[in-house]
Write a structure and sequence with these properties.
two-stranded antiparallel sheet, mainly alpha, about 325 residues
């Protein structure tokens, strides 16, 4: 009952906030304008970029109401979210003017948000040896690097996947449902509340972002969703993990993770910046192959569901 109420509250807040925020975006000209010369700009009308604020508000109100657990980790999560929302808003504002914001400031802020989470005590500390049953504690330096790499990586891949109506929101919702099941299975109520709140905000957002989209969440929203997903995995799936169960959250977010590993590797081979926006992600490749937007989203969501089911099977094997 607790989780159903958390879902309903997060869904309702975002559902009700998006329309007025969309109208505000048109008044202040905070909209993503179509550009005929850019392959990634699929839409043909100006779209508001304000859904991120509804998502942020909906998630944190729900988390604070139902988790009832204001700790240093909560504070780090909130400050990290504000940092990402702020730098993402600056990036989105540049886009409304047809300009590109430099990658370095975004990278620094994303790493800073990850460091805050680590300093608050939410980290990947080690794993259980499947043969001896002993818990292997990793060196502190490795704990730090792996935690930062995980948070930064997931934040980035969700942002990179936000290139088509409904795609990033749908992939995030599928991953969040999977992490919710993992948290329930492990008896981790705080992680479960975070996950179900994330499901609620993304589904409400999808009500307005499904093709053809009426609103976008921009970099601000996509990086925030990725950040929260990464923290949920750290707080839940990665805690007391075995060697095999480490792959559970990786599979849960498999589509954006595996696609963007391919994209980054390809850009590296070609000597391009990994932050240089282009149309090499799988959704653009499927679009060029002849599928329409709805078909691309459905195909990638089906693949994501299959990978998520694989992660749940892996979880059941472990229990």
């Amino acid at each position: 009952m607790l989780y159903l109420l958390a879902f309903l509250l997060s869904f309702s807040i975002v559902y009700l906030l998006i329309p007025p925020l969309g109208r505000l975006a048109f008044r202040i000209d905070f909209v993503d304008k179509p550009r005929q010369d850019v392959e990634r700009k699929i839409h043909r009308e100006p779209i508001p970029l304000t859904a991120s604020y509804a998502i942020f508000i909906g998630f944190f109100i729900t988390y604070l109401v139902f988790a009832r657990d204001f700790t240093m980790e909560t504070l780090a999560l909130f400050i990290g979210g504000v940092l990402l929302l702020t730098i993402g808003t600056v990036d989105d504002w540049y886009k409304t003017k047809g300009k590109d914001f430099p990658a370095l400031p975004k990278m620094i802020v994303q790493v800073a948000a990850a460091v805050l989470v680590y300093l608050a005590g939410n980290a990947f500390t080690g794993f259980y040896n499947p043969f001896s049953g002993d818990y292997i504690v990793l060196p502190v330096v490795l704990q730090f690097l792996l935690t930062i790499f995980w948070i930064f990586g997931v934040t980035t891949v969700i942002n990179f996947s936000d290139g088509m109506d409904g795609l990033a929101g749908a992939l995030t919702a599928i991953s969040a449902v999977t992490l919710f099941i993992v948290a329930l299975t492990k008896g981790q109520s705080t992680s479960a509340v975070m996950a179900i709140a994330l499901v609620g905000v993304t589904l409400a957002y999808l009500r307005y972002n499904k093709p053809p989209a009426k609103i976008f969440m921009g970099d601000a929203g996509a990086t925030f969703l990725g950040f929260i997903l990464a923290v949920i995995a750290l707080d839940g799936a990665f805690k007391q993990a075995t060697v095999l169960s480490i792959f559970i959250p990786i599979l849960a977010m498999g589509v954006p993770i595996f696609d963007n590993i391919f994209v980054v590797f390809k850009r590296f081979i070609q000597g391009k910046s990994i932050y240089q926006a282009d149309a090499t992600q799988v959704h653009y490749r499927l679009l060029r192959a002849g599928l329409n937007q709805k078909q691309v989203v459905i195909v990638l969501c089906l693949v994501s569901v299959c990978l998520s089911l694989s992660s749940i099977i892996l979880l059941l094997i472990q229990t």
